[in-house]
Design goal:
The chain is of the alpha+beta class and about 425 residues long. It is built from 9 helices and 15 strands. The radius of gyration is 48 Å and the shape is elongated.
């Protein structure tokens, strides 16, 4: 059952209203019939048999309506509203009381019935109330709709944090020494070589060995890396997580750009990066043609110049090539002499860690002594909000900006080797 006691009582009132209207209609028809009889009698002094029959039929209809609704009224006046049992049983009894009368009147056209699956619906014509009888079922969330038969959302949970885009676990700046740059222009002496070497003074008075060194002055200008966006003040006020998301994500994006420039910058209106500054790698032995041989040989070449190779940078997909190394018979085999160190989460070659970065091109690798370059910071990473930018005031906008001003000094270019590993294999 779908109606409570108040609704059923209201339906009873509407049933009574329908009965009253029907009686009023019959009364009007009766008066009209009497008037016709009077006019006919005045005209010819006779009353036709058809007129008498019509009058009798109307009187019978009035009596039937009075009897039908009188029975309903009598039952309610005599017995009152159902009171026995629990609430559901009382409601059912009350609805059945009205429902019985509706079934009796259905044939007379005062009520319409719509058959539905598992239920019957009686509606008063022209009225606003309806009585439903439907099969009892289990209440589920499907019973709660938005009025258009679509499931309604009964409860809403809104998270106040956003998972930012992924970022690398390490950045190029983590491999470099860094210092503050106090001016917007810097020159540093770069050692490029020399002649001679120390020797013995065999006899007293002999001329001692002479040596000399050569330097060039390398100019460095800091470069600004920046980004900005604009957002409405209302959005910042209404969306609690928005400001934190912008500051975090914009910093991550800036660091990715910084990684790219510190590695690959051309030096034309930009930083000159490690790779353009590095020496090109040439295998010591022309027979070297595997990635393992290249990396071991590169480390050895730096050590032969007294540099300490302390990091190898390569693309994650090239890193993976090392992990899937197999023997000629198909077994995975990581040579113990190549993979050293105690931290197995970080692949190493003779103790030199390998770092994965997406900002280096696939097919490239850099072996280096990263202490021989330095990140110069003129202005550190700075995030700011500006309410008075362009037409922000008139449009109620806020400008969000992130920027830094940095330079790179590669003091020893020969301490870095730029390797092309595109064509080399990993197998033996």
């Amino acid at each position: 059952m779908e109606m409570n006691e108040a609704q059923v009582a209201e339906l009873g009132k509407q049933v009574g209203a329908v009965a009253q209207k029907r009686m009023d209609d019959v009364q009007t028809a009766l008066e009209k019939q009497i008037k016709q009889i009077e006019e006919q009698y005045k005209a010819d002094g006779k009353i036709s048999a058809d007129a008498i029959k019509g009058l009798s039929d109307l009187q019978g209809t009035v009596k039937a309506i009075e009897d039908e609704f009188g029975q309903l009224k009598t039952r309610i006046n005599r017995d009152g509203l159902p009171t026995g049992g629990n609430g559901a049983e009382r409601q059912k009894a009350l609805e059945n009381l009205i429902y019985d009368q509706l079934k009796e009147l259905e044939a007379k056209g005062d009520f319409s019935q719509e058959n539905q699956t598992g239920s019957k619906r009686y509606a008063v014509k022209g009225g606003h109330a309806a009585l439903h009888q439907k099969a009892v079922g289990v209440f589920t969330s499907g019973n709660l709709t938005d009025g258009a038969s679509n499931p309604a959302v009964s409860a809403r949970d809104i998270r106040q944090t956003v998972v930012t885009n992924p970022s690398p676990s390490i950045h190029v700046r983590n491999l470099l020494n860094s210092s503050v740059m106090t001016q917007n222009y810097l020159e540093y002496p770069q050692f490029v070589g020399g002649e001679g070497e120390p020797g013995y003074q065999v006899n007293q008075g002999d001329t001692k060995a002479q040596i000399d060194y050569d330097f060039i002055m390398v100019p460095v200008r800091p470069r600004t890396i920046a980004a900005w966006t604009r957002v409405s003040r209302q959005a910042l006020n209404d969306i609690s997580w928005l400001a934190n998301f912008f500051s975090t994500q914009m910093m991550l994006d800036l660091l990715k750009k910084e990684d790219k420039e510190l590695l690959n910058g051309t030096g034309v209106n930009s930083i000159k990066g490690i790779i353009p500054s590095a020496a090109d790698y040439t295998p010591t032995d022309a027979g070297y043609n595997t990635l393992f041989e290249y990396l071991v040989d590169g480390i050895a070449q730096l050590e032969a110049k007294d540099y300490a190779a302390n990091g190898i940078v390569m693309h994650p997909l090239d890193y993976a090539r090392l992990l899937v190394y197999k023997t000629t018979t198909g077994e995975f085999n990581h040579p113990g002499l190549v993979f050293g160190g105690t931290d197995r989460s970080l692949l190493t070659f003779n103790g030199t860690p390998i770092y994965k970065l997406n900002q280096i091109a696939q097919g490239k690798a850099v072996v280096g002594d990263w202490n021989r370059a330095e990140l110069l910071i003129r202005e550190g990473i700075n995030f700011g909000l500006f309410y008075e930018d362009q037409d922000n005031v008139t449009k109620n906008l806020v400008t969000l900006r992130i920027e830094e001003e940095i330079a790179l000094a590669v003091y020893h270019p020969q301490a870095f080797l730029d390797m092309d590993i595109t064509a080399v294999t990993t197998g033996v």
